[in-house]
Amino acid sequence: MKKLKVGVVGVGRIGRVHLHNLVRGIPEADVVAVTDPRQEQARELARQYDISAVSPDYDAMVGDSRIDAVVLCSPTSQHASQIRQAARAGKHIFCEKPIDLSLPVIQDALDEVDRYEVQFMVGFNRRFDPGFSKAKERIEAGEIGDPHLLRITSRDPGPPPPEYIAESGGLFLDMTIHDFDIARYVVSSEVVEVYANAAVLVDPRIGELGDVDTAVVTLSFENGALGLIDNSRKACYGYDQRLEVFGSRGMVQVDNHRRDSTLFSDKAGAHLAPPLNFFMDRYAEAYAIEMAAFVKALTTGSSLPVTGEDGLRAVKIALAAKKSAAERRPVSLSEIA
Ligand SMILES: NC(=O)c1ccc[n+]([C@@H]2O[C@H](COP(=O)([O-])OP(=O)(O)OC[C@H]3O[C@@H](n4cnc5c(N)ncnc54)[C@H](O)[C@@H]3O)[C@@H](O)[C@H]2O)c1
User: Fold this and answer.
1) Which helix (H) or strand (E) holds 96?
2) Distance from the CA of 253 to the center of ligand 1, in angstroms?
């Protein structure tokens, strides 16, 4: 079997997760190079994972004729130009979310993907979480009837550093974007209107950067269903990730994952272990399944499970939420160009 030759671009928080899964968990993939402007970090990871090449920069990586596909884990600001460059070099692309913060820039990059007929997938890992996948399967099978209400609670254990926030596009484009994608995915309908309310309650420095850290977003779907997402950048008890879809014939719920499920009771009350600490732990399985799905599609010629269009639509919802919170009114998706 011909292995997929992969280059990993950016080996920060998420790049390391994908690198680890590609090297340790996916025999059909062969990571032939990594690149990161933090050269020492890239060299250290290459040593650790026994990767033969550290490309001096991205140009060198896309110029490497051995590479079939790039996995873009660089900061969001770099994605669009790296996509265009990879497409022109005939490399398939896995790109972390969000593709970019601007719809025309995303469209431009996706046009280049189409023009050069390369394959493209966005990193919406939650779709591959076994709990969320199962919920989707039950909804698709009609087990809850018509979906009426969606509730998502998505709270981080702590905010990222200010320098990350400054580049991230803000809460809706950086964090809630996962919730917008999973909302479209499980309800199987497009969002038509967004009403967002947001505040700075966790850290005033986030407000000074022009961002928010707490939000409530209501969604209206094309099929008539209604959704509610609540977000916080800081849940003191850990990474709080819950989902519920309620329909005419039943309800499906996905709860937090804990280190163990033992319920201990004493005079003070009943105690459960806190939720798994953060995305690297909570979604470890999802990241592994996601990357395996990318490699499998490219090695078997099947279609990729998350498309550029999915990436674009989630950004569109996020931009609507940002506008809604700023203007304190419901915003129709048709207003967002
Ligand atoms: N799917 C998820 O759950 C998830 C989780 C975290 C981050 N992300 C996304 O992944 C991307 C990276 O986030 P992160 O948290 O890993 O950030 P990070 O800052 O930890 O890592 C980014 C890495 O990219 C490197 N880099 C900078 N410019 C580069 C360039 N031009 N080419 C190659 N590498 C470059 C940096 O030196 C750094 O090592 C962001 O788009 C973020 O939104 C997704």
Assistant:
1) strand 92-96
2) 31
